[in-house]
Amino acid sequence: MHNPLEEWLDYEKIVIQALTVICGFFFLGVALYEISFTNPLSDFVYTYYLDPIIGESTGDSGYNMINTMTYGIVLAMFVLALSGWLRNLGVDGSDTTLLALLPFVLWAAFGEVVEDARMFGDFISSWFVSPGVHFQTAAWVIISGGLGYSLANNDSLDKEEKDRRVNSLVALIVSSQFIIYAISIDGSYVVESKDISLELMFLFSLIGISIPYWLKNVGEHFDYLQRTVYFSGVGGSLVLFGALASYMVTANPEPNLTFWPVLVVVGVPVILAFIMFRQGAEAASILADKGIVAGILPPGMTEEEYLASESAEKDLIESLRAKATLAYPVVVLPVAGQLLDGLATWIGIDAFPDYSEKHVLSQKVIDGGLWVNEKLGIENSLLDEGVWLFTILKLLIGGIIFWFYSIANFEHRQQHLRLLIGLALMVVGMAPGLRDVGRLMLGV
Predict the structure, then answer these.
(1) Which of 11, 157, 316, 405 is the most buried (most CB within 10 A)?
(2) pTM, whole model, 2 decimals?
């Protein structure tokens, strides 16, 4: 029987082909470099992409305009391609999948802070530097998701056996992370020179391995694929948090930890998210009772058909759309993430003079704030670094995200695209913001 969900959209085919070509040129440049064949392609790949990553793992070398633009374009292309793959695999395209992926954002942030503390050995360290950390995070998500997908589609197992196997798969993934990262940390120069004990890392890893038991009730809200990813993300986050806890306790006998940035940078976005959800929960619930998610069209209906239609159901959707959007995780989390990143950057640069912005485009915005300060004669201590303009821009981006989802209509087969756009917007805001606040707290 014909299934439209299995059809590839034209733009998905084009993007996949383009990504194949890009990856081909990239790896060709690396291969030619490895055999010492001098050529412009290898020079370009290493000058703009690989050398900055290698440099950052040892000295925080930063970004350039070429790789910044490339990362943004490739990220957008991956979102389009991945939406097609997930749809063809039959993966749930609801906001529940976004919630299942949320722990891996925290995982990536913890890992980057561990790298900032110079705890990893050289090889692993380079994989916790952007963009390598995003590929590594994706790899763990694919591993856990692939195992969960196989389990979910194994019809020979009953529910009780599947529950047991989820626990076993999570234990395997989390223990593998502990072994890989503990070996790297134990052999690093910083750990040896500061005599850091990894007992706390081991303890938190044990908690991570047993997380399916501790969060059993939470797991019931997910399917088996989502559950495996969620528990693996939470468990892996505990592994890396354990590494940070070991650093905090044993690297400095009298640690000078700064907690107030966490309260502001994380607390304010959490409050915003809570307010948004409370404002939209009733409207979202009314639509959900009718099997409706605002912005996702019924199966087989195009946006043109929806806009031209007239019905009581459409009137109800349009009357509740804006408020309901406030309660959807695909909107709440990216908006909160943008504010989190803006606050982290503002506090990090204004209150901690040792920190500076390394992203090219972000620095240009901050320079714009300095120009405004100069023109208006602003000398307020909270505004004198110009970072206030970056924070305002992040707030505006959050508003644009809400506006976009409040008016956008996604065909039923495009719901994965809706989800992945929200995921990308959440990651580019929340992950660097959490990393920044972690660095501020530890002073690394």
Answers:
(1) 405
(2) 0.88
